[in-house]
Amino acid sequence: MKDFFTALAITSTLVLTQACASQVKSGETPNSNATTVSNANPHAGHKMGNSQTPKAEKNPHSSHNIENSHDEHSGYSKLEPANATAKLTVADKITLNTPVPIVIEVQDNNGKAIANFDQFQEKLMHLIVVSDDLQSFNHIHPTYKGNGRFEVQANFPHPGNYSLFSDYKVAGKAEQVSVLKAEVPGNSPTAPKIDLATTKTFYNTKANLKLSQPIIKTGQEVHLIFNLQDAASNQPLKDLKPYLGERGHLVILKQSSPLTQADYIHAHAMKNTPAAEVHFITSFPKPGKYKMWGQFNRNERIITADFWVDVQ
Q: Chain centroid to CA 284: how far?
């Protein structure tokens, strides 16, 4: 590729216990002439969701769910950190609402490509592309080309700064999130007012957000419940299916400038909950406004339900 720039990659380890991991080895890939600067961040965060309605990706292992346990929900793992670095290469001139080729290369601290990765949540890499004003959100899965190189295409819907949270797991190591940055030239749109409503409709689905406590306190464990209904009938959904091996996925970002890995939380869905409800347990590290994106598979269509919460 030509006319590329490379963004700053800020790495940190995401310590989550992952089960049923499968190792993938590298193949030969074309060389990239891009360069990068990266800073290791030893502080772990939590971890993942598309404001659009894509079709669900089919996977023969979709019945696999991560077991519920306090350790898994709180995000702790005994695995060692990989201390890897991710490098982003993206077109210098980005056309709005047009698929843009993206290359992510994962290297060790010596700049050598890392070849082997473990699969988690049915993918080798999860990429969250979000505008820094938290209005645009996309959860996509780059294709592994071997020798530490991942490729994907992403849309950028409006001008402004974007953060790309690259979530991957070097073989035998703890899961890691690298934060990559991209900028789309032009005047950024005015961010809409923060909406703290707890009932919203997304496509054909009504989502009701329920909290285990009326006021969310910093550092306290909170139970988040997404009650899902058919928008036309107001009846509980009966067509929910697993998404990436779980009942749902929840990505949370703290309103912050600039966005960092410390602002990123991912919560796993609990098992054995009522058919039309998806439950998550997490905690919020700092006070402030947070935006949440819950993703659910309704009959092979991914529904993304976004809500704001205020943490004190």
A: 16
| Tokens at 75, concatenated | 């995000």
Write down how long the chain is.
312
**What pTM was estimated for this model as a whole?**
0.76
Please name the residues in contact with 202: beta carbons below 8 A apart, sequence gap of 6 or more.
53, 303, 304, 305, 306
- Containing 151, the helix (H) or strand (E) segment is strand 149-154
> Per-residue pLDDT tens for 209-262?
999 999 999 999 999 999 999 999 999 999 999 999 899 999 999 999 999 999
The pair phi, psi for residue 74, each rounded to 5°, is -85, -10
Q: Which amino acid is at 29?
A: T
Token representation of residue 266: 């991912």
For 118-150, the pLDDT digits (tens) are 999 899 999 999 999 999 999 999 999 999 999
CA–CA separation, 292 and 282 (whole Å): 12
Which ranges constitute the DSSP H helices of 221-291?
A: none
Give the percent of the chain with pLDDT over 90: 64
Contact 131, 113 (CB under 8 A): no
- Residue type at position 55: K
